[in-house]
Specification:
Chain A has 96 residues and is an all-alpha fold. Chain A has 3 helices and no strands. Chain A has a domain of 66 residues. Chain A is rod-shaped, with a radius of gyration of 24 Å. Classes of the chains: A mainly alpha (96), B mainly alpha (252).
Chain lengths: 96, 252
C-alpha cells in the first residue's frame, strides 16, 4: 500500500510539473477576468497618483500660503507619477 | 415612504444593533459588524471543516478549501517569489475576507462591508503598515532605496524621488478606493435598476410592458457583479503581493 501511494504521488507530481510551470506566470482566473482586473488596476493607480499629488499640493499651499504654486507643481508631479505607475505595470505584465 | 423604498443609497445605512459607547467613542455593534462576524465565522468554518477530514479524495468542502489555498499560494509564489510565502497567511486572510464580504453583500437583505471606505482603507492601511515595518526591519535604511532608482543622472534625481514618493503614497489610496468604488457603484446600479422596474410598473399602460427589461438587466448585472466581487478580491490579493515583493526586494 505504502509503495503504491508513493508511486502514485510521484506520478502525480510528475504530471503536475508541466502543468504548473505555464500557469504559474499567469495565475489569473481567466483571460477576460485578468484583462478586466488589469484595467481596474491601471485606472485606479493612474487616478490615485494624481489625487495624492493634488492633496499634497493643496495642503502644502494652505500651510505655506503659496497658493497656487505648490498645487500646480504637485498635480504635474502626480500626473507624472501616475504615468510612471502605469508604465511600470505595463512593463511588468509585458516582460513576463 | 415610497420615496425611501426606492432610495438606492438606503442600503448603505449603518444601523446600530447594540448601542455601545466607550469614552465618547461610538463603538456600537452595527449591521456592518454583524456581517463581519458572519464572514469570519464562515471563513473559519470553511477552513476548519475543509481540513478536518483529510481524505484522499476531497469532498466538496475540502475541495473548496484546497482550491482557495492553492489559488492564493500560486498567486503569492508567482508575484512575490518563494520568500513571499512567509506572508501567505496574511494574504490568504485578506483575500478570503474581501471575497466573502463581496459575495455576501450580493445576497438580498445583507450588507456590503466593503462598500464602506473605512473598511477598505483600514485593510489597505494594514497592508501598508505590514509592508513598511517588514521592509524597515528587514533592510533597515536600505529599504528607502525603494525611492531612489539606480542609474538616474544626479540632475533629475530629486525629481524622480518625489515622483516615487507620490507613487508610493498613492498605493493605499488606489487599493482602498478601487475596492470601495467598485462595490458601491455596483450595488447602486443594481438598486437603480430595481427602482426602474417598480417605477415602470407603477406608471401602468405601455410603460408597464417595458418593466421586464430592467429586470433582465438586473440578472445580467448580478452575474457581472459576481465576477467583479471575485475580481476585486483577487486584485486586492495580487496587489498586496506586488507591494510585498517591493518590501522583500527593494531597489529594483
Amino acid at each position: 500500500m505504502r509503495r503504491r501511494l508513493d508511486a502514485l504521488s510521484q506520478d502525480l507530481s510528475r504530471r503536475e510539473e508541466p502543468r504548473s510551470t505555464p500557469t504559474s506566470s499567469e495565475t489569473g482566473p481567466s483571460g477576460l477576468g485578468q484583462a478586466v482586473g488589469l484595467g481596474f488596476r491601471v485606472t485606479s493607480e493612474f487616478v490615485a497618483a494624481i489625487v495624492v499629488g493634488g492633496l499634497i499640493g493643496w495642503q502644502g499651499d494652505r500651510w505655506l500660503h503659496s497658493s497656487p504654486l505648490l498645487l500646480i507643481t504637485f498635480i504635474a508631479l502626480g500626473t507624472a507619477a501616475g504615468f510612471w505607475n502605469v508604465y511600470r505595470l505595463a512593463m511588468k505584465t509585458g516582460g513576463k | 415612504m415610497p420615496e425611501k423604498a426606492i432610495d438606492p443609497i438606503h442600503q448603505f445605512n449603518i444601523e446600530r444593533l447594540m448601542p455601545f459607547h466607550v469614552m465618547g467613542l461610538d463603538a456600537s455593534f452595527t449591521n456592518a459588524s454583524l456581517l463581519m462576524v458572519i464572514i469570519l465565522a464562515l471563513v473559519s468554518l470553511l477552513m476548519l471543516a475543509g481540513t478536518s477530514r483529510r481524505s484522499m479524495v476531497p469532498g466538496r468542502l475540502q475541495a473548496a478549501a484546497e482550491m482557495s489555498y492553492e489559488f492564493i499560494a500560486n498567486t503569492v509564489r508567482g508575484t512575490a517569489g518563494q520568500e513571499g510565502m512567509r506572508f501567505f497567511p496574511f494574504v490568504f486572510s485578506l483575500f478570503m475576507f474581501v471575497l466573502l464580504a463581496n459575495l455576501l453583500g450580493l445576497l438580498p437583505f445583507s450588507y456590503t462591508v466593503t462598500s464602506q471606505i473605512v473598511v477598505t482603507f483600514a485593510l489597505a492601511g494594514l497592508v501598508m503598515t505590514v509592508l513598511i515595518l517588514y521592509g524597515l526591519v528587514r533592510h533597515g535604511t536600505h529599504f528607502l532605496g525603494l525611492f531612489v532608482p539606480s542609474g538616474i543622472p544626479i540632475l533629475i534625481l530629486p525629481f524622480i524621488v518625489l515622483i516615487e514618493i507620490i507613487s508610493f503614497l498613492s498605493r493605499p489610496i488606489s487599493l482602498a478606493v478601487r475596492l470601495f468604488a467598485n462595490m458601491l457603484a455596483g450595488h447602486i446600479t443594481l438598486k437603480v435598476f430595481g427602482g426602474f422596474v417598480v417605477a415602470l410598473l407603477g406608471a401602468g399602460g405601455f410603460a408597464a410592458l417595458l418593466s421586464p427589461l430592467p429586470l433582465i438587466g438586473i440578472i445580467v448585472l448580478t452575474a457581472f457583479e459576481l465576477l467583479v466581487a471575485f475580481l476585486q478580491a483577487y486584485v486586492f490579493a495580487i496587489l498586496t503581493c506586488v507591494y510585498l515583493n517591493d518590501a522583500i526586494h527593494p531597489g529594483h
